[in-house]
Amino acid sequence: MLDRFEAKLDGAFGLLDRETLLARLRAVLPGERLIATTEAMRPYESDGLAAYRSLPAAVALPADADEAAAVLQICRELGVPVVARGAGTGLSGGALPFPGSVLLALGKLNRILEIDPVARTARVQPGVRNLAISEAVKHHGLFYAPDPSSQLACSIGGNVAENAGGVHCLKYGLTVHNILKLEALTIEGERLTIGSDALDAPGFDLMALLTGSEGLLAVVTEITVRLLPLPADIQALLVAFSDVRQAGQAVADIIAAGITPAGLEMMDELALTAAEQFAHAGYPLDAKAILICECDGAAGDAEAELAHVAEICRAAGASEVRHAKDEAERARLWAGRKGAFPAMGRIAADYYCIDGTIPRRQLPQVLAKIAELSSEFGLAVANVFHAGDGNLHPLILYDAAAPGELDRAEALGGAILELCVAVGGTITGEHGVGREKINQMCVQFTTAELEAFAAIKAAFDPQGLLNPGKAVPTLARCAEFGAMHVHRGEVAHPELPRF
Amino acid sequence: MAGSDSPPPCGEELGERIRRAAATKAPLRIVGGGTKAFYGRQVDAEPLNVAGHCGVVSYDPSELVVVARAGTPLAEIEARLGECGQRLAFEPPRLGEASTIGGVVAAGLSGPRRPFSGAVRDCVLGATILDGRGQVLRFGGQVFKNVAGFDAFRLMAGAMGCLGVVLEVSLRVTPAPRREAAVALELASDVARTRVCALMARPTPLSGAFHDGERLHLRLSGGEAGVTALAAELGGEEEPLGYWDAVRDLTHPTLASHEPLWRVSLPQTAPIPPVGDVAAWDWAGSLVWMRSNLAAESVWQSAAGVGGHATLFRGAKAGEEVFQPLAPAMLALHQRLKAALDPAGVLNPGRMYGAL
Questions:
Q1: What is the architecture, at CATH level 2, of domain A348-431?
Q2: What is the pLDDT of residues B231-262, one digit of tens each?
Q3: Residue ranges of the alpha helices (H) in B84-186?
């Protein structure tokens, strides 16, 4: 299991007397801002990837950036690893504590510092919830666009660390496209301003580099986000297909026709059936696949665009095209999609969510291959899919109580990710590498590329103290686990077209 | 697949040149089409010509991505996209026919659509580079959503070749809008900036807002209904869409100058610093073109004072700094990053900053 860190593979740190560390931290974190008992640290032993658990040496809950800087200075001086944590909703174990580390939980930095409706920006602390930003600016007719499914709970700091997307990113972009400026702390506790309030900044584009860096380069203490005007009109369509391949074709045709839907989601039979039983969204249970397509824009334009989508879907062989007649029906269509994950919890004891991205044109082959792998491993797979941007979420259904099933689920997940890389895609579209996909990084990148990542990290964090064992594997790890894989050039699935 | 051209790849030869340069610590000056030689600081070094490494590698309109070798002319790529009703959303300036896509990415200059559709780096999905050791490294890929590894490919946009030689880029492309229109309004600069802010607070199909010193020029791109409604609301004088070519390509008469020309990037609502004559502004008032004979230090200081930064875009003397100076800690970080990817310091040393 990947929740056991190994010095040889993940980085070795000198053993430090825990009492010395706690005494130093207590001096800068009074009262309950330092948690050190096993019982009180339990809630912090994992993030959204609950299968992996590990306890840190201590949990630090700084009240502001100065306290966070003081914690970092102490850790650097003592050579103690630091794992930053936001709301703990991440799905790849990025906030899994490293043994002996200080877990730097930024939840107390949870204030919206400034909203500027004229410049359409908001300055927020990292612990602010994603949805709270949109709620706070709604009365100005504005919103913050990236909307990961966990937006009710996830924090904006975590969104920056993961470069979070969401169901509307095909049109509105990822986190990196929607932020302007970061205040960040280096491992030395030094403050850096990255990016600017203008639309660009001098020097290298460090804002883009830091976004999605999974806590390996710096700790973000303040974010300036861009806000967008709420669309005038939003329209949604439910389309059913009796063949998954037709649905895949319709997606390609919609994009090729010059339409940029605000959201374009796909679910296969197993996923839509489970979601329907859970959320009663009105999905047709005789369909092999459904698409949910949402268009927004000026009054008249959204409707015209959606009519065009309907036409394309019919031409692709849709068995049913249903236009949500009102806001309530549109909300129901989305409730089914957003409830797809919890719905799986009702039909299987456990599920394991995969997050690869593939070029859209590979969809039919990849779905067919996933079905083959599913029977080969003897585990059912339900497919939920951000179709518009090629981001797959196969959900592997298993029972952790059944001996060997978790191992089989992990192996099947690994095989699906390697398939994504083989067809020209990536092992993670939005959930991050974290701890979970660290071995698959050895498949996607060469030794020289991994060395370049390590060198970039060392430019920020020469001792390697920030979130060790995550996101970028050591070469020792790849030598140990990458041996079973095959690198680019000697591809795992030679029958698939390459480009 | 809309076809694929395949000239002989010469990445290996370029890699060999870099390996030799690194071994002898003899710096290289990366040259594409040579159309942006005026931009940034001059590098006194042997040229490394990348223009020959050219050709569109793949383009599939339904994937919204084009992959091209660095030496591919920008004009060729735009023509290919145009045939399929697509475009580059960041609308880079066309500074000459020889302009290459590698140079476009390395310079990181985005056109008038920047505040509305994003920057060069927003559209870079992946890059294959040669690092300062002459190794081929691939970062990112051809898909929009990809969070594996650091986004080193976005880092190449605007890095002026100081972190690697771009060999190949994947760029996200965008469907052309169904309808576009352009209008001019008689509004003074400060009133115009306020007006544009008010328009941008609403869901309007704005895609350009440029002030030429006398009039506000607006471009509208979107659906039929939205563009028609906004055009009717704005009134003013309708003008040809072609007006925006000169804005995009920086050939607008108001930008012609014998004096040093400054590019001042500002927060949306910051006052324009009084350090020169405003020639024009673009980016909805966030990018000001200014003529100034003041000492560079005072322009930089004033720009920083309002939260912006300034670049001596044209007219720098040899050896002068042109980009807003970095704070010491930030410069040191830049130096460490450069050393990480180019340990011998042979790729465009001094092109961005003298000390980098």
A1: 2-Layer Sandwich (3.30)
A2: 999 999 999 999 999 999 999 999 987 789 99
A3: 101-107, 114-117, 120-123, 152-156
Q: Which CATH number does the domain A112-229 belong to among 3.10.105.10, 1.10.10.10, 3.30.300.130, 3.30.465.10? A: 3.30.465.10
Inter-chain contact B145–A386, Cβ cutoff 8 Å?
yes
Cα gap B83→B2, rounded to integer Å = 10
Chain A residues with beta carbon closer than 8 angstroms to that of B265: 196, 198-201
B327 φψ region: left (φ > 0), alpha (ψ -120 to 50), beta (else): beta
Bridge partners of B18, per DSSP, are none
> Which residue in B has a C-alpha nearest to residue A304's C-alpha?
B223
Q: Are B115 and B286 in contact (CB under 8 A)?
A: yes
CA of B240 to nearest chain A CA: how many angstroms apart?
23
Q: Which residues of chain B make contact with A442, given a CB cutoff of 8 A?
A: none
Pairing verdict, β A102-105 and A58-60? parallel
Report how far residue B135's alpha carbon sits from residue B140's, in angstroms, rounded to the nearest whole number: 16
Can you give the pTM of this predicted structure? 0.95
CA distance B124 to chain A (A): 11
Alpha-carbon distance B38 to A234, whole Å?
47
User: What is the structure's pLDDT at A340?
Assistant: 85
Q: Are A396 and A465 in contact (CB under 8 A)?
A: no
Which among B154, B267, B325 is the nearest to A198, CB-wise?
A: B267
Among candidates A142, A170, A298 on the partner chain, residue whose Cβ is nearest the Cβ of B205: A298
Contacts of B163 in chain A (CB under 8 A): 204
What is the model's pLDDT at position A51? 84
The residue among B147, B179, B202 with the most chain A CBs within 10 A of its CB, best to mutate, is: B147
- Nearest Cα residue in chain A from B205: A298
Q: Could you check whether A233-338 and A348-431 share the same CATH topology?
A: yes
Class (C level, CATH) for A233-338: alpha beta
Q: Where are the domains of chain A?
A: 7-105, 112-229, 233-338, 348-431
Q: What's the complex ipTM?
A: 0.96
Lowest mean pLDDT across A110-119, A190-199, A477-486, B19-28: A477-486
Amino acid present at B210:
F
Measure the CA angle with vertex A385, ends B116 and A129; round to 5°. 60
List of E strands, chain B: 28-31, 46-49, 56-60, 65-69, 86-87, 124-130, 136-140, 165-172, 174-175, 179-185, 206-211, 216-222, 237-239, 261-265, 277-282, 287-291, 309-314
Q: In this predicted model, what pLDDT tens digit does every residue of A421-432 receive, in sequence order?
A: 999 999 999 999
Question: How many CA atoms, within 13 angstroms, populate the side-chain half-sphere of residue A163?
Answer: 28
Q: Are A178 and A144 in contact (CB under 8 A)?
A: yes
Query: Which residues are within 8 A (CB) of B73 and not within 5 positions of it... i.e. 6 or more apart?
Result: B33, B54, B97, B98, B99, B100, B101
Q: What architecture does CATH give domain A7-105? A: 2-Layer Sandwich (3.30)
Please name each of the domains of chain B with its CATH number: 11-175 (3.30.465.10), 179-249 (3.30.70), 261-314 (no CATH)
pLDDT digits 0-9 by tens, B21-52: 999 999 999 999 999 999 999 999 999 999 99
